[in-house]
Amino acid sequence: MYNSIQEKVILDGHKLFWHKDRVEAWLNGEKIAPITIDCAITKACSYKCVYCYGQLQENKGFNLSKDNIFRFLDDAAEIGVKAVSFVSDGESSLSPHIYDAVLKGKSNGLDMAIGTNGFALKDNRLEEILPALTYLRFNISAGTPARYAYIHGVDEKAYHKVIGTIKKSVDIKKNLNLDVTIGTQMVLLPEFKDDVMPLVMLGKELGVDYLVIKHCSDDEEGSLGVQYDKYEELTDVLTEAEKETTETYLVKAKWSKILSGGKRKYSKCYGAPFILQMSGSGLVAPCGMLFNDKYKDKFHIGNIAEMSFKELWQSDRYWEVMNHIASDEFDAGCDCGTLCLQHKVNEFLWDLKAGNVALPENPGTPPMHVNFI
Question: Is the Cβ–Cβ distance between 305 and 64 less than 8 Å?
Answer without folding.
Answer: yes
